[in-house]
Structures are given as structure tokens and as C-alpha cells.
Amino acid sequence: MIDTIFFDLDGTLLPMDNDIFTKGYFKGLVGKLAPYGYDPKQIVDGVWRGTAAMVKNDGSRPNKDAFWATFEPFIPNWNPAHRALTDTFYSEEFREAKRFTGENPLARPLIDTLKRDGLHVVLATNPLFPANGIETRLNWIGLTSSDFELVTTYENMHYCKPNPKYYTEILEMLGKKPEECLMVGNNTDEDCAAAQAAGMKTILVTDCLINESCTPIETYKNTTFADLYAAIQSCL
């Protein structure tokens, strides 16, 4: 019996176009680091390289370590003390990136209702961000990390979507079986195909659909966010 619901964040609980959001918030990150003599293009390229290293992580180290081990050598004259600047950015300036996302007044009521129903909820966002960056994005939709039994971050995870081992790692952390959990997300590959490969049932939320593999959405149980509660109930 399913008693635990995994939620993706970007494009699921938090409406957004990933490209618009990424380009927008990168400007802020570059603006934070450029005054210290770093080339903006190298910073952006370095972030993408670090992100790729996290996506390819084989479980041997936390995603955070995979990122910095790739990013720092790529940036000429990088000062490791400036990691603190990025921490500050995700706690403070990153808040301004809210303008690159949408509103979702239904997110908080849905999470509260599921918990009142006795279900466990997990924020299974791709762990490419530090915890404070995820906390900031949750705040935009009236939620906090304390609303979830687990929030996946680049500090506490060793894999990323679309690797099915990302989901297996969460299951191990929770002590849950795949058949006890349901993954809800907007990405056919990262949220549905990968979670199903780990043995979980899934629901595809179509409001901000990402379908790079051009998979017929009928392949997966799918719904709009407005009808998500009913779709979840039908899986229990």
C-alpha cells in the first residue's frame, strides 16, 4: 500500500520554465562573483560543468563534492574561501529569482491535506542545489523544508535524476519499499521513467510538462495540478 508521496519541485510544486529560470538566476550568481575578478562566462560554464559532474555522480561522494571538485579547478585563480559567497547568494540574492517563476496557491493546501490524510511527503527535487537554495524556492510557494520528512539536496545525496539510483537512495534513507511510494513530477524521463525503473508508481503533472524523449504522455498516469489530489487518491 502506498503511504509516501514524493514530489518534484521545479515545474511541479513550483511552476516555471526551466530555461527562463536558469538564465535569470545565473545573472544574479554571476553578479555576486564578478566583483571578485571572475569572468562571467567562465562562471556560467563552470556551473554547467559542475552540474554535469553531479548528474554523472556514481555514488562515491556527495553531489556537493562532485560539483566543487569540478567547478573550482575550472575557474582561474578561484579562491576556495569564495564558496561562502555562493552560500550567501542562495540565502539572500537568490530570492529575487522568484520573478522567473509562477505562483501556485494550491501547493500548500495539497501538502497539508495529504499529511492530514496520514500520508508521508518527501521533496524529491533534483539535488543540484544547496539546501538553502531549495529552502528559498519552497518559500515562494508558502512551504518550508520542515513540511517534508526528507528534502533531497546536493549535500545529502549521491546521485541525481534521471539515474534510478537517486530514487533507490531515497528509499534506503526512508526505509521504504518502492511499492509503498508514489513519485509526482512534471518530467517524463527524470520523474516518471527513472522512478518506475526503481519500482515506483508515478503521476505526471502536465502544467509545466518536460518531455525531451517525446514519450506519449498516455504512457504515464497524468493530470493537471488542480486535479492532482484526486489522481493521488486513485493510486492509494
Automatic annotation (TrEMBL):
Keywords from the UniProt entry: Hydrolase
Any GO MF annotation of the entry: hydrolase activity
Record-linked Pfam families: Hydrolase (PF00702)
SUPFAM superfamilies linked to this entry: HAD-like (SSF56784)
Stored InterPro entries: HAD-like_sf (IPR036412), HAD-SF_hydro_IA (IPR006439), HAD_sf (IPR023214), S-2-haloacid_dehalogenase (IPR051540)
Coiled-coil blocks: none
Keyword Hydrolase: yes
Domain of life: Bacteria
Name of the protein this chain belongs to: HAD family hydrolase
